[in-house]
Amino acid sequence: MIVIGAFRHSLDLEQALSVLERSGIPRKQLLVVAMDGEPDVPMPYSSRTKDLHSQGVELGFACATGLAVIGASTGFIAPWGPILGGLAAAILGFGIGFGIRWIHARRLRLRPMPKNLPEVTVIVRCAEHQSPRVLEIMWTYNAMTVGLADA
Amino acid sequence: MKSPSRRPMAVLSTFGVTQLHRQNPYMVAWWSAVFPGFGHLLLNQYLRGTLLTLSEVIINTLAHINEAMIYSFCGQFEQAKSVLEPRWAFGYLLTYLIAIWDSYRSSLNQNKLFHLASMENEPIPSLRLFSAEIQYVEQRRPLTAIAFSFLFPGTGQLYNHRFGLAFYAIFWWWVYASLSHAYEALMYLLIGQLSKANQVLHPHWLLFMPSVMGGSVYHSYLTTLEHNKLFALEQRQHLTGRYRSSEVRLLDGAGAGS
């Protein structure tokens, strides 16, 4: 039998593999394949395929901090005061930074990476009577998906 | 232990994970401009980053930079001119720009070093025990890091096991909060006494707080993401080595050759 499980990189994954080995599956009957979520990106920083969401968050923080200083300063002569001025400017700045990245991404027709893709595939060859135990171990240690083939 | 590699990607010390990772040179330069030293902290140059932040607070206070900024943003340019201390302001300006320049330049070089280190692919440490600390590469939630640092700057660094920087930042947040009377002002705001809130605030110390909070949030967020990547990379190295001799063939017998 062949059992295939897809996992995220996690301590659970290593627990699953260790428990499988202790449950009588020899190490050589396990095949572990690390999966890439995107083709190998070239090294220079400006790679466009990187996570758009986190780029937006980063630009958001940068703009929020800059505007917060200005908002707090001008708040000293405004009726609403420096604390409210700083906070409002920070929220506005985050929106601006995040928005710029979002509009930019739409222009370039970039799509954010789907979240929670499996990152490691575990393939186990085992005898038929072992397969229920293998399935159970994979599910116990948070496999994302598990499949069984009579091969 | 194997012989130490020429370009390791990460080390674990009592103080946490120190790693090379891909840097955005513009973000590093920007955070240096927000608060000299923050760019170097992002580059994992923790000691010099800390010293730069100390000199920023001292020289800014002596030169009255924050007061001059407040007057300038409010359009009161005459008052801005009179409050600045020329004795300290010129040196402040020079070291301020050099801090930006140096962090930008270092980030470009660290990107090259990271490229080389990732091709060398030397084993990444995953866990080390010290007599006073346990440090390990761990997966964490970026949103939790953001929330911690937003609620109290420095605690996001604690979440990332970078406790030296964490307590340094926590200490300084207390200094800013008490000297600026920010929490008293917040209390007056919450009970609706807006004018009283504005009266108790001290502008010089208040103006450090948005930068420090922003920097702490960004640093903890970025560190969490980079630690997660390091965790995945270390695990991949480990699993590739451990299951190298796998004998699993999906097609065997006659099917294998086709």
Automatic annotation (TrEMBL), chain A:
Keywords: Membrane, Transmembrane, Transmembrane helix. The chain crosses the membrane at residues 57-77, 83-103. This is Uncharacterized protein. It comes from Cohnella xylanilytica.
Automatic annotation (TrEMBL), chain B:
The chain crosses the membrane at residues 165-191, 203-221. It comes from the Bacteria. Keywords: Membrane, Transmembrane, Transmembrane helix. The keyword Membrane applies. This is Uncharacterized protein. It comes from Cohnella xylanilytica. The lineage of its organism: Bacteria, Bacillati, Bacillota, Bacilli, Bacillales.
